[in-house]
Design a protein that fits this description.
With 204 residues, this protein is mainly α. It has 9 helices and 2 strands; from the N terminus they run αββαααααααα. β1 and β2 form a beta hairpin.
Length: 204
């Protein structure tokens, strides 16, 4: 027979995990069903089209503020990055609308485009279509870890982690993003979003 103390500990752990999943589901629904503002745009952070639009908007804003990026954008477009091409066309329209002289690099690229010169776009997974989703999932993992004092990822144990909880929450909300994918997103973004001194408080 299983000792009573072990049964009690297991029941407590299951209740805690269920609470964590319920909390994560609330956050997932808030992001999925709502519109969170970025750069003045109300966006669905799980929707690819909104992710793409936000990425282009950020590139345009940074290009206006950074002469170096404005110089680099045409090279990136010529190399086949479609988002850079879209940003350049949008910037051209903005400068024309405002009656401002275009930066030389932008003007040269628009002249090439108007003359019919095109560049083949390279096939890619288009990370700009998911960059807001990665940020949202990372923030949900961090929030779950902080609230329920969990490690972000599993470390060779069967104990739940922030990533496993969020993966289950996403699954229960019919979003097919498994634990391996959530863990990979955390590996890419988590340490930047949540520095070590912040994460150290999660297990206290």
């Amino acid at each position: 027979m299983v000792p009573l103390a072990r049964k009690y500990d297991q029941a407590v752990a299951e209740i805690a995990e269920a609470d964590a999943i319920a909390y994560a589901r609330e956050l997932v629904r808030m992001v999925r069903d709502g519109k969170l503002e970025l750069c003045g745009l109300p966006l669905n952070w799980f929707e690819r089209g909104d992710n793409h639009a936000a990425a282009r908007q950020l590139i345009e804003r940074f290009a206006v503020l950074s002469p170096n990026l404005m110089l680099d954008l045409p090279h990136l477009a010529r190399a086949g990055w479609g988002l850079a091409h879209e940003a350049l066309l949008s910037l051209h329209i903005q400068y024309e609308h405002e009656g401002k002289p275009r930066p030389p690099a932008l003007a040269a690229y628009i002249q090439e485009f108007a003359a019919g010169r095109t560049y083949a776009q390279r096939p890619s997974k288009k990370p700009e279509n998911n960059f807001l989703r990665r940020i949202a999932i990372t923030c949900i993992v961090g929030s779950v870890c902080e609230r329920f004092h969990l490690k972000p990822t599993r470390s060779g144990s069967h104990k739940p982690s922030g990533c496993s909880i969020v993966a289950k929450a996403l699954g229960e909300e019919r979003m097919a993003i498994g634990e391996a994918a959530v863990t990979a997103i955390w590996a890419q973004v988590g340490k930047m979003a949540f520095p070590a001194e912040f994460r150290s408080s999660w297990l206290q």
